[in-house]
Amino acid sequence: MTIISYRPQNAWLRPQLDGGWWRWLLRSLAYGGLVALVLVSAALPRQERLRLAYEIAKLRKETASLERQIQELELAKNRLLAPSRLAKSLPELGLHLPQPDQVLYLTPQGELVASRPKKDAGGAR
Questions:
Q1: Hey, what long-range contacts does 74-77 have (CB within 8 A, 24 or more apart)?
Q2: Phi, psi for residue 12 in degrees, rounded to 5
Q3: pTM above 0.90, yes or no
Q4: CA nearest to 50, candidates 58, 38, 65, 36
Q5: Can you give the residue range of the structural domain that contains 71?
Q6: What is the C-alpha separation between 65 and 72, in angstroms, rounded?
């Protein structure tokens, strides 16, 4: 059985666009921007703290290295200024040991004398 009916040909009609898509797009962009702002505001302080922690660690390492270098330089200076080393290098430097008459002694009273002061038998200080 065939039913004959009228079917209009309305292909020439264009459907109107829904005006709500524009509002939906703006709302979606606003929410996305808000979420991005919250994420960035939560991540920035942590990133700054982490950067400072790395910088502090680098400065501590540099400080330790400089302290080691200072210790090595102090040791080298002490080695060079050791009395035994200086005594061995006197002739090379053109220096001679002082003669006994060139030596002056300081007394407990604060006077310089040419001969070595005699110690008191009583042990006075």
A1: none
A2: -75, -10
A3: no
A4: 58
A5: 23-113
A6: 11
pLDDT at 116 (0 to 100): 67
CB 114 within 8 A of CB 106: no
Number of domains comprising the chain: 1
In a domain, 125, yes or no: no
For strand 112-113 and strand 105-106, is the pairing parallel, antiparallel, or unpaired? antiparallel
pLDDT tens digits for range 53-74: 999 999 999 999 999 999 999 9
The tokens describing 82, both together, are 């050791």
For 109, phi then psi, to 5°, come to: -80, -5
Q: Under the phi-then-psi rule, with left for phi > 0, alpha for psi from -120 to 50, and beta for the rest, what region is 82?
A: beta
